[in-house]
Amino acid sequence: NNMKVKEDGYYTFVYDIETTELVITKVEYTPDAGAYYIDGSFISWGGAGNESYKLVQDETDPNVYKLSTTITLAVGDEIGLQYYDKDGAEGAKYNGFFSAKNMVANANFDLTSGTNAKALVAGTYNVEFNSYSHLLKLTPVTE
Question: What is the pLDDT of residue 18?
Fold first, then answer.
């Protein structure tokens, strides 16, 4: 009874509640060029514009941006992601902040305490952001 995708890609889903008809259309999608910076209280909110905290676009998936290093958080540290509309281009402007509501559920973080995600477990984390889904993922580094 489940739908199965026959071709990789991006799709829109439109459901008409009156006719119970679902229309699925494959769409072309090109991610916007931009600059993403991890930011938070763990670096005194100094990530924006700091190359050490800039996420780098993945070579195989243009929607995925990763921090090339890890971050270390203490219990209570708050975190989010700053977005600028142009990557290093003149006239780049602040365009938004991705916060707890954009974070992939993780038991190591409180996503209900306000705008920012708050660390519940101290540790070292890998950072990944999907510019299409707008989901931020912090994965604990295991040794």
Answer: 95
